[in-house]
Amino acid sequence: MMFRLTLSLLTLISVSAQALDRGETISIPMTEQGLLWDKQILLEATLYKPAGDGPFPLVIFNHGSTGPGIIANTLTINPWGFGTYLNKHNIALLIPMRRGRGASQGSYKESYNCSVNSVESGINYASQSLDATMQYLQQQTWLDQENIVISGHSRGGLLSVVYAAKHPQWFKSVVNFSGGWMGDQCQINTPLASNQGLFSKAAKNNPLPHLFMYGRNDPYYSDSEIESYAQAFEDAGGQLDFQFYSLGSSANGHALFYEYSDFWLEGFKQYMQQLNLM
């Protein structure tokens, strides 16, 4: 989902909308494997990089889904206040658009079917865009390869957790904002394909520290379900800092990242300081 960016973050970083840096649009090459031949496509990404040669730590921010027709596929997700904030702390931010989203080429095939096969194929399909992103990043001399934090919102949050579990050698930590693949209304019979099951599986033998940030009154996941995500992750051996915010009775908890930075920004800063990144 996509929401307006909270004014509190803009106030904190003391930047006017008129003067705000909207980042640099870059293209990331990707090879799509077909039955008969491979196809070369380009993914769109927005990069916020501090001035200088680096090397700089990096936060990757993975966007959420379109919802069932709620957000246009062509919309480029650009949390510019977050980019400006990180740059002030000498940290780069990259927001890659997965296939078929924004100006990225290819098809958007992250379906909303509740079947186990749909969930697994959707995550695998999304992960292929991240594979291309990581191949691109590994060639960048401005990047401190030892200090990459992977993060994301909604589907991008869960994707970050699952992807980092498969490639822990590439990342320093994981930050999950309101992460989940399907909402509570989606009854998945196989526990490993549920949000709780996916988090539990990702925690096993995982050496990375994780920060989970959620807001109460999320229209997609109940408070008890969110708490079960954190519990399952910890029970499976994951290293977790779980922060669960009460935003107000009329607040949309799923909008935590975009609309309520005054709740989570200090906790995020303290977490980054523990990683010696701020």
Description:
The protein has 278 residues and is α/β, with parallel strands linked by helices. It has one domain (7-274): Alpha/Beta hydrolase fold, catalytic domain (Rossmann fold, 3-Layer(aba) Sandwich). It is 32% helix and 22% strand. The chain has 8 helices and 8 strands, in the order αβββαβαβαβαβαβαα. The chain has helices spanning 7-13, 80-88, 116-137, 155-166, 195-203, 223-235, 256-259, 261-274; strands at residues 24-32, 39-48, 56-62, 92-96, 143-153, 173-177, 209-215, 239-245. Strands 1-2-4-3-5-6-7-8 form an 8-stranded mixed β-sheet, with helices on both faces. Strand 6 (173-177), helix 5 (195-203) and strand 7 form a beta-alpha-beta unit. Helix 4 runs parallel beside helix 5 (195-203). The protein is globular and about 45 Å long. The relative contact order is 0.14. GO terms for molecular function: hydrolase activity. Keywords: Hydrolase, Signal. Residues 1-19 form the signal peptide.
Percentage of β-strand residues: 15-25%
The span between the termini is 28 Å
Describe the strand arrangement of the main beta sheet, using strand numbers.
Answer: 1-2-4-3-5-6-7-8
Query: Which structural class matches the secondary elements?
Result: alpha/beta
CATH superfamily: Alpha/Beta hydrolase fold, catalytic domain
Helix content range of the residues, please?
25-40%
Oligomer: single chain
**Strand/helix succession:** HEEEHEHEHEHEHEHH
CATH fold-level label: Rossmann fold
Report the strand count.
8
Q: What shape does the CA trace take?
A: globular
What is the CA-atom radius of gyration, in angstroms? 18 Å
Domain Peptidase S9 prolyl oligopeptidase catalytic: 132-176
Pfam families: Peptidase_S9 (PF00326)
GO molecular function, one term: hydrolase activity
Organism: Agarivorans aestuarii
